[in-house]
Amino acid sequence: GHIGAAGHYEYAPVGDIVNTASRIEGLNKRLGTLLLASEDTLAEGEGFEKRLMGSFLLSGKSNPVTIYQILGDGALASVEGIVYTELFPTALELFRARQWQQAEATLARCLELVPDDGPSLFFLELCRAYQRKPPTADWQGVIPIGK
Fold first, then answer.
1. pLDDT exceeds cutoff 70 at 13
2. Rounded CA separation 57/85 (Å)
3. CB count in 10 Å sphere of residue 93
4. Helical spans, DSSP H, in the chain
5. Are residues 137 and 127 in contact, defined by beta-carbon separation less than 8 angstroms?
């Protein structure tokens, strides 16, 4: 959009899409990732190696956003491939099923193979927190991300 008047105009991105993109960018810090994209964004393109991160309720949003990590070319063929395609997805399913201890054990296995895997570290800590204080009974696996 454009902002200004009387001979001085500036053009800047504005609106909900920009706000959502900024929130997703900030989620990279929390997850220890470099590149994240929403499911809606990925629907517009093909050929990306990706890993599901889950459903997040981003700050200032009323609807959850499904987020994927974009992986580098060849990532699935590397040693990390088993973490990305088998172990982490299993852990995520266990997490959403409220099976915190099993998810924690699977995430620990992920970290044995890839010690610096940010998403595994993030969900491991979340599993531990949810074991101490579980989410409400109507929880649908959506992770709230505040400011």
1. no
2. 24
3. 15
4. 16-31, 39-42, 81-82, 88-96, 100-113, 118-132
5. no
C-beta of residue 110 within 8 angstroms of C-beta of residue 117 = yes
Query: What integer best gives the mean pLDDT of the chain?
Result: 89
Q: Are 38 and 24 in contact (CB under 8 A)?
A: yes
The predicted pLDDT at position 90 comes to: 98
CA distance 30 to 83: 19
Among residues 100, 97, 94, which one has the least CA distance to residue 132? 100
Give, in order, the Cα–Cα distances in Å from 103 to each of 15, 29, 52, 91, 99: 37, 22, 15, 5, 6
CA distance 133 to 33: 26
